[in-house]
UniProtKB/TrEMBL annotation:
All copies of domain ABC transporter, residue ranges: 6-235
Transmembrane annotation, as ranges: none
Listed name of the protein: ABC-type uncharacterized transport system, ATPase component
UniProt superkingdom: Bacteria
Region of the whole protein represented: 1 to 236 of 507
Family: Belongs to the ABC transporter superfamily.
Keywords from the UniProt entry: ATP-binding, Hydrolase, Nucleotide-binding
GO molecular function: ATP binding; ATP hydrolysis activity
Length: 236
């Protein structure tokens, strides 16, 4: 594989007696859609918190483009080029799309509207910049969240269980967006427990069980039974 964008070596994080992540090794390639697959409690959210600077590892090393990565906060993660779209959206209902984005991104209103429109067209994230958030569908709200992240030109975009809130037609559209983003040079970390979705859209999957990595595979080369065995230790 080409030199990884992000690497974790022996990363561990415990909460008291609970070993949420234990000696995690992980390489995220540039321009890839990389799944973090695991059932509830496997340690996915903890891993995301470490990669987005919300928490610090107890032990182990993180590398960004081969150099040590010290994340002391999400603001530092964003400066490196790491963006995160949370499962629960954080948009203000009474403001427009453009006003929500203006809260976190500098720029004149006309420029922001232009960028929202351009990103929407380029990546299948169409949304009316002047619409009020309360009038948007869940899929449109998620598009705004993704656009807001893209405004900072991330190299890595973390999506936490992005399909859990979406109707099926929006899932298909989201996957098209993720592929376009990957092809434009952005890597995606796709957090999920949904095997079929991971097989449909991801180039690589790191599988977690009880805080441990149980597989690092190309999910297209494994059927759902194989992946389930790695994820839960038995067939589904
Ligand atoms: P889910 O899909 O349910 O969010 P997950 O795979 O994201 O699960 P984590 O949330 O990372 O898993 O949790 C891994 C383990 O760490 C679980 O046993 C959880 O209860 C525990 N844990 C996570 N955060 C904390 C915390 N702040 N304090 C104590 N225990 C925690």
């Amino acid at each position: 594989m080409t030199a990884p964008l992000l690497s974790l070596r022996g990363v561990s994080k415990s909460y008291g007696q609970i070993h949420a992540n234990q000696g995690i090794d992980l390489d995220v390639a540039p321009q890839s859609i990389h799944a973090i697959l695991g059932e509830n409690g496997a340690g996915k959210s903890t891993l995301m918190k470490l990669i987005y600077g919300v928490e610090m590892p107890d032990t182990g090393e993180m590398l960004w483009e081969g150099e040590p990565l010290k994340l002391t906060s999400p603001a530092v993660a964003r400066r490196y080029g790491i963006g995160m779209v949370f499962q629960h959206f954080s948009l203000l209902e009474t403001l427009t799309v453009a006003e929500n984005i203006a809260l976190v991104i500098d720029g004149r209103k006309a420029e922001l509207i232009e960028r929202i429109t351009t990103l929407g067209r380029e990546f299948g994230l169409e949304v009316d910049p002047l619409a009020h958030v309360h009038a948007l569908s869940v899929g449109e709200r998620q598009r705004v969240e993704i656009i807001r992240c893209l405004m900072t030109n991330p190299k890595l975009l973390i999506l936490d269980e992005p399909t859990s809130v979406l109707p099926p037609q929006s899932v298909t559209k989201l996957f098209e967006t993720l592929k376009k983003l990957r092809d434009s040079g952005v890597s995606i970390l796709f957090i999920s427990h949904k095997l079929e979705e991971i097989r449909a859209v991801c180039d690589h999957a790191t599988i977690l069980r009880s805080g441990l990595v149980t597989g690092n595979v190309d999910p297209r080369e494994h059927d759902a039974h194989d992946l389930a065995r790695m994820m839960i230790g038995r067939d589904m």
